[in-house]
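User: Fold both of these, please.

Assistant: Here is the first one.
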Amino acid sequence: MTATSTDILPVILSGGTGTRLWPLSREGYPKQFWPLASDLPMLAETAVRAEGRGFLPPMVVCNEAHRFLVAEQLRGRGARIVLEPAGRNSAPAIAAAALLAEEANPGTVMWIMAADSAVRDVPALHAALAHAAAAARAGRIVTFGMLPTTPETGYGYIESGDELPGLPGVRAVARFVEKPDAARAAEFVAGGRHLWNSGMFVATASTLLAELERLAPDLLHAVRQAVEGAKRDMDFVRLAPEAFVAAPSISIDYAVMERTQHAAVVPASIGWSDIGSWAALWEISDKDAAGNAAQGPVEIIDGRNCFVRSEGIVTGIVGLEDAVVVVTDDAVLAMHRDRAQDVKKLVDALKAKGRKEATEHRRAYRPWGHYEGLIMGDRFQVKKIQVRPGAKLSLQKHFHRAEHWVVVSGTAIVRRDAEEILLRENESVYLPLGCVHRMENPGMIPLVLIEVQSGSYLGEDDIVRYEDTYGRT
């Protein structure tokens, strides 16, 4: 696609883990991949806001472990996916995006945003973006300041200055303020000059790179080496690991925004939330007459101002007020809404005890589909596997386990050593220990099967791959 001087490049940062939304959001499948504020996953919802005339296909910077999730959720949108070998905070991620953007289309205006925020008023967002883009083309680095609706202590604030000459709707930044206590937050809201810091930025790639060169040269040098040494395969840009990890781990706020003379802010009221906690999600959710927000198979009796979400199990609440209850297939969270920021402490405690539920879901996602554990016993386990139409697993073998596959729905082509076997619904195949095997779904509907493993060791690392469509080793 050929860019014009007015095209805007959406840059979506998708490196967060959303710990405070446990047990739904976990490191293996964090909040940006879940539908929280609408029927769309948050990543896809973010991309939809930046589609249409005047927008280039998005660039997404994400954790390498999430690459196939990002590719699947943005399928058909022409996304360029930049893979971080390790999390280094927002400044190195933005630097990498700016280098790639300037290389592709010099002078590109970048609209940088998190993958996990909610916006209710998209037309108002686009109106604010138009003001920000004009300021960006004039050499400013613009952030969006959200008009505060409550004395929120979970956000940083921006103190706005006077409107900039020739740039309607754009103000100077007087200063950035760290997350305040409740009393100071109330003063900010009453004063009318302070705005929530949304973490969205608009600037040309050249302006960002010039300021990074001036204010954080070591960071830019490391990231430039990571980009120059990057490997490209399929839709992915794999940043060179050693160079990227050498970059300081620092936010763009500390590295640039709080030190640059080019900072500007666009005040906006767009129904924004970073959905940083279950309490924040309750705030933006539809509620009943008693103030309860319920999602899934939930029944509430005499409850008030509660948030209750179930991912499948019938969940009943009686006589609770200001409570959060979240139920998944392997964990339950129950707490007072005022303690929403303390979920991270709970996750840290679970990690300290070695509980895999702190970071992993029972369902594990792979580029070909997903699997979930059903039963685990002594020398055996049972899994449910779902394979997308047209997808295939790697050609592989195991040293310590045999497997039995039973097709529940769909059609499978199974390679077992030199054999090729077609399986239909209610048919099965046995894969003895050590045989080289592969499965693919040649059909138009998902392939669902039950896998029974038996052997002395059943870990996921007992696998030797000979060939893989997705470049895994």
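And the second sequence with its predicted structure:
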Amino acid sequence: MKYSKVLLASFLVSFKLFSADLDPNEIVKKADLRRGLGNISHSFNVTITNQDNKREVYQVNFKDVNASLTNQTEPERARGRKLLMKDYDIWLYTPNIKKPLRISLEQKLTGEVANGDIARTNYAEDYEATILATEKKGTDDVYKLELKAKNKKVTYGRIEYLVAKKDFTPIEATFYALSGKALKSAEFSDFKQIQGASRATKVTIRDYLQKDKFSVMVFSDHKPQKFDESLFNKDRLEF
């Protein structure tokens, strides 16, 4: 009995030391790099389709986590529509209105995709992480993380996030509103070698309650690129 207590005490001490060394925010940073190029200035394309085979294409100029410009290129009738993100502010520009309209990150862009799902995707910047548990997902050992918003301007109030222990690959996420309501889930897949690392090129987002409502985001053509600051000026969006 005494021997069992010693073993249990040793296990608890080892577990506490292991947990103390494991920074959940570092896990999120590493997982962010599996979903994109991190804070590197670059461009990429996003193709979004939904359950009705509606298709939209966007070209994104990403300067850093606080500045991006999204240009819609398809369908033809929506060409010229732009989303400018600066810090937590986002503006919508359309050729027929011409004056930029301030909108929110959580508003839907199309289907189940919110503006922030394209414009601001760096979880490590916007959320404080804690480890809820370690568990199995299929054959993978995963961290189950809770991400709480650092402020009320972000896309989601809270995220439950599964990340593979072996290589910090993001597996899936559940997104919650600031009110606590579950909104939707996401699955990350089709990992490909991009700029020297394995990164997700496909994200399937489903409505939390109506599972038959979904949007698939496919990311392609990641290219490191420098941009002039003037590109991210809301007063120059018509040019």
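The longest strand covers residues 182-194.
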